[in-house]
Specification:
Helix 6 packs across helix 9. It is elongated and about 55 Å long. The strands form 3 sheets. A 5-stranded mixed β-sheet has the order 8-7-11-9-10. It has a 4-stranded antiparallel β-sheet with strand order 1-4-3-2, with no helix packed on it. It has a two-stranded antiparallel sheet with strand order 5-6. 30% of the residues lie in helices and 25% in strands. Bound molecules: FE2/S2 (inorganic) cluster (2 copies). The site of one FE2/S2 (inorganic) cluster has 11 residues, from loops.
Length: 266
């Protein structure tokens, strides 16, 4: 693991990540621009300096790095995407799957790496490459590796509460019932993505007091958005049917209908 990766891993919180993540999968240079061609340098006393700035980061995906180099009379800025692999047990980032496997074998004895594989996901418009085992649910990968904390677990993964709902390939699914390894190439929208898009559902949910403890709310919002995507003007019966898989222990059910009706047709 490079020194830069170690520093980055410790210095950026999950909250920072959720605000700032922006990345590309691939791990190859994606752009090169010569910004300055003449600065009057002396060829005999050529100076070489190099600075590297992390401009955006994301756990489990790639890090976009802007590197500015001054070599003699020219300054060159190179933007690269550098892949990173996140340890699902302690959050440390690595440059390759083999480095991650070596780390797990050394630091997390008892955790087998023989079945570890990678899966590409697009989550809220950003591309990631995450590691998974064949039995890990999508919910755990989203929460533990990508820090997507709106994906809840109210029924211990029995598919009974809807709190882990996400939109996958334009359809609402229970992420606790979907194996991450089955999701290679999937396009996933979570409540964070719905909120970041400025969706009027968020304000309608707030104004209609759709939450008490709020634990179930992201799952309801995701289901409501999926409903409205396919049926922009649902009836009360259609709303209740769509939300029938989402449970709320605080009994907020009537408020959800009001919020969805408020947004219907927009
Ligand atoms: S945690 Fe997925 S349905 Fe309850
Ligand atoms: S608001 Fe508390 S579980 Fe729904």
């Amino acid at each position: 693991m490079t020194e830069e990766k170690k520093t980055k891993s410790k210095g950026i919180s999950r909250r920072d990540f959720l605000k700032d993540a922006g990345l590309l999968v691939g791990g190859t240079a994606i752009g090169s621009t010569v910004l300055l061609a003449a600065c009057g340098g002396d060829a005999e006393t050529e100076t070489v300096t190099s600075t590297k700035t992390v401009t955006s980061t994301a756990a489990g995906g790639t890090t976009t790095v802007t590197k500015t180099e001054q070599v003699g009379t020219a300054t060159e800025t190179v933007t690269q995407s550098v892949p990173s692999y996140v340890c699902p047990y302690d959050g440390q980032e690595f440059d390759s799957l083999s480095e991650l496997k070596a780390h797990i074998e050394a630091e997390h004895t008892g955790e087998s790496t023989s079945t570890l594989s990678t899966v590409k996901l697009t989550v809220n418009g950003k591309e990631y490459e995450v590691v998974t085992k064949p039995h890990w649910p999508l919910r755990d990968v989203l929460r533990n590796q990508l820090g997507i904390t709106s994906v809840k677990d109210m029924c211990t993964g029995y598919g009974a509460c809807g709190s882990c709902s996400v939109i996958m390939n334009d359809r609402p699914i229970l992420s606790c019932m979907m194996l991450a390894i089955e999701c290679d190439g999937a396009d996933i929208i979570t409540c964070e993505g719905i909120s970041d898009s400025g969706d009027p559902l968020i304000e309608a949910y707030a104004l209609n007091a759709c939450m008490q403890c709020g634990f179930c709310t992201p799952g309801f919002v995701v289901t409501a958005r999926a409903l409205l995507n396919h049926n922009p003007n649902p009836t009360v019966d259609e709303i209740n049917e769509a939300l029938s898989g989402n449970l709320c222990r605080c009994d907020t059910y009537p408020a959800h209908v009001l919020a969805i009706q408020e947004v219907a047709g927009q």
